[in-house]
Amino acid sequence: MTLGVFKCELSQQSLISGLPDDIALFCLARVPRKYHTLLKCVSKRWRDVVCSEEWHSYRQKHKLDETWIYALCRDKLDRLCCYVLDPNSSRKSWKLVHGLPPRVLKRKGMGFEVLGNKVYLLGGCDWCEDATGEVYCYVASLNAWSEASPLSTARCYFACEVLDGKIYSIGGLGSNSSDPHSWDIYDPCTDSWKFHSDPNIVPEIEDSVVMEGKIYICCGTSAVTSHVYAVVYEPSSGTWQHADADMVAGWRGPAVVIDGTLYVLDQSSGTRLMMWQKESREWIPVGRLSSLLTRPPCQLVAIGKKFYVVGKGLSTVMFDVENAGNMEGVMVSSSIPKLNSDDDVISCKCLSI
């Protein structure tokens, strides 16, 4: 091999000619996420790096990762669709995520969750199909969907949460052979689901959140008390217990947790944000959102200390918990223009790369 050919091959092996790969990664990882698609077009080596777990981990470790919002919606033709929003973009507009698996388009009651740099669509059913355990995965860095390891039991209209780096699929309705008092745990290290059961889990799931290292499930009306109630998962014991009744009493809408505090969007009369005060054991009104900006039914999602209220047609209102002003009870916020549609928003999740 001549010296010239050797230098050429060496140059092709390097991320950036003349630089060690660790220095090249130091430089490339600081490129904003919105330009990652362009980076992947430079060469196969760059594409492989941008799509790798190493890239994802490096950006997280050095606090370079950027969080985008993914919304699962249903359009006027009753088909599922998925959109993504870069909240830091100057244009601030929702964009359609293409390539949703055709088999899921008509399904209802699907789980929607994010783990690492992947979005998961789980289970579901439709009018001519019983509940399924199928799982589909969207790798954000590749912008591609694929089939993933199926749930250990078929489910629809169930709760989905991530705790300690694992996905929990809880309760819901299933096939005739499914146990409604059960949950599945997905371990990405083994790429497998593990089945568990507990009589305190009920099929009727309203909402769920992770708070203080525990999963809280807001359930439907109890046949015994005729009141809405909740159960909480204790990871240390692997069991479910009944949650604080005072907290559950005000859980009337989509919820998120910021800095260990539970916030709920009450849409029973207008759009009002409520906060659970654990010390005083009472719900405190934070403020109302302008009816001119919100289009219920809405979903809540949080990035840092900012709330995003996403309603019909992906109308989006953002406000900062710390800096949001209050003018005669109406919270001062900024809005993102809605799409020219009346799509219903089913769920919103955040994904960081």
From TrEMBL:
Highest taxon listed in the record's lineage: Eukaryota
Limits of the F-box domain: 16-54
Pfam families referenced in this protein's UniProt entry, alphabetically: F-box, Kelch_FKB95
Annotated CDD domains: F-box_AtAFR-like
Name of the molecule in the record: F-box/kelch-repeat protein SKIP4-like
Statement: the UniProt record of this protein carries the keyword Repeat: yes
Domain FKB95-like N-terminal Kelch span(s) in chain numbering: 89-309
The organism of origin for this protein: Prunus avium
Keywords: Kelch repeat, Repeat
Coiled-coil ranges from the UniProt annotation: none
